């Protein structure tokens, strides 16, 4: 398969996934595109939305379409790290000899739904850190590799704060994207009614497999990025820091800490996949702009004033883009 065919295969595979999900998911096209970008970049996503919008349904349906091992972890205040990673248990053989055997936890899947992740304690939340960053877990001094492709999709409710634990900054930064699931419009609500309250039947088909995903991931790293595009992404991230010379007045007023180096990495990698989805083997400034919000919104920590006044990080990202002139 030559280069043009590889690029075209990414575009076609995305269309197949999008069309298959449309059998059951109404709207949410931007969300689906961003999930595909996360998948090919080897990243993880934090999905924020009120209950009832279909967050769990999208993840479960995606696992069927991609033929990946699906695992759901329901986060609760009493959840322990061993409930996620697994634990050693004493077993006995036929001769009465006792030994430890490791029983794998739900993290040993490929597409992991961490449902309501902010309901578990920080100690339990941190159990995901090594898995998300390294693709492996350590239990009682022994390391276990996770089967690729491995992707964590965590959900949280932005409204209900009682009984929740804010995610540590170190963990938030490990999410490639933070995605917002919007409430459906009137015509979309009507379609949801048609599909859920009437005799509507569907069957989700497997459209691509793990090997195809890994091949597409290897292509992403090869996509060239021009120097001026890299410079634009770098200046975009630096402008999110309140102490930077190009920081706007609102950034200095409302931001405590700007985006980390993972922010610029996410911009470039996501820009590559965005270009491939469009059938291009080069990254444009528009590709970077289109992924700026999901890549940076969770990496710009608001200060007390920003939190108190309810400042929207997306507006600050848009403001930086408007003020940032390309070289």
Topology:
Blueprint: H1 3-21, H2 29-41, E1 45-48, H3 55-66, E2 70-74, H4 81-85, E3 86-92, E4 98-104, E5 111-115, H5 122-125, H6 129-134, E6 136-139, E7 142-145, E8 151-156, H7 169-172, E9 177-180, H8 186-196, H9 210-222, H10 227-238, H11 249-254, E10 255-257, H12 261-277, H13 285-290, H14 292-296, E11 301-302, H15 304-308, H16 313-323
Parallel strand pairs: 1-8, 1-9, 2-5, 5-8
Antiparallel strand pairs: 3-4, 6-7, 10-11
Helix pairs in contact: 2-12, 10-12
CATH fold node name of the domain at 223-327 = Helicase, Ruva Protein, domain 3
Number of helical segments? 16
The order of strands across the largest sheet is 2-5-8-1-9
CATH architecture of the domain at 223-327: Orthogonal Bundle
Q: What assembly state would you assign to the polypeptide chains in this entry?
A: single chain
CATH class of the domain at 223-327: Mainly Alpha
Mean pLDDT level: 89
How many strand segments? 11
The H-and-E topology, N to C, reads as HHEHEHEEEHHEEEHEHHHHEHHHEHH
Overview of this structure, please?
The protein is an alpha/beta fold and 327 residues long. The protein has a domain of 105 residues: Magnesium chelatase subunit I, C-Terminal domain (Helicase, Ruva Protein, domain 3, Orthogonal Bundle). Helix content is 46%, strand content 16%. The chain contains 16 helices and eleven strands. The chain has a five-stranded parallel sheet. A hairpin with a 5-residue loop joins strand 3 and strand 4. Helix 2 crosses helix 12. The longest helix is centred in the first third of the chain and has 19 residues. The two termini are 36 Å apart.
């Amino acid at each position: 398969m030559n280069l043009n065919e590889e690029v075209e295969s990414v575009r076609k595979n995305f269309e197949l996934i999008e069309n298959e999900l449309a059998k059951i998911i109404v709207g949410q096209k931007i969300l689906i595109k961003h999930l595909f970008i996360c998948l090919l970049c080897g990243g993880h996503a934090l999905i924020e939305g009120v209950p009832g919008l279909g967050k769990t349904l999208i993840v479960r349906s995606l696992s069927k379409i991609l033929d990946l091992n699906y695992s759901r972890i329901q986060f609760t205040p009493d959840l322990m790290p061993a409930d996620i990673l697994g634990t050693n248990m004493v077993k006995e053989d036929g001769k009465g000899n006792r030994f430890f055997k490791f029983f794998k936890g739900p993290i040993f899947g490929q597409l992991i739904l961490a449902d309501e992740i902010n309901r578990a304690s920080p100690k339990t939340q941190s159990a995901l850190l090594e898995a998300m960053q390294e693709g492996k877990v350590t239990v009682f001094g022994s390391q276990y590799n996770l089967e690729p492709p491995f992707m964590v999709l965590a959900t949280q409710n932005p409204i209900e704060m009682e009984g929740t634990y804010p995610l540590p900054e170190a963990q938030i930064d490990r999410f490639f994207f933070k995605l917002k699931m919007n409430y459906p419009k009137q015509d979309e609500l009507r379609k949801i009614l048609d599909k859920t309250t009437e005799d509507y039947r569907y069957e989700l088909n497997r459209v691509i497999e793990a090997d195809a995903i890994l091949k597409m991931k290897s292509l992403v790293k090869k996509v060239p990025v021009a120097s001026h595009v890299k410079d634009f992404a770098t200046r975009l991230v630096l402008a999110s820091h309140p102490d930077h010379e190009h920081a706007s007045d609102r950034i200095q007023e409302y931001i405590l800490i700007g985006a980390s180096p993972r922010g610029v990495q996410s911009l470039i990698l996501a820009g590559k996949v965005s270009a491939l989805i469009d059938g291009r083997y080069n990254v444009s400034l528009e590709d970077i702009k289109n992924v700026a919000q999901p890549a940076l919104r969770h990496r710009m920590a608001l200060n007390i004033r920003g939190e108190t006044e309810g400042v929207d990080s997306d507006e600050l990202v848009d403001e930086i883009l408007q003020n940032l002139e390309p070289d």
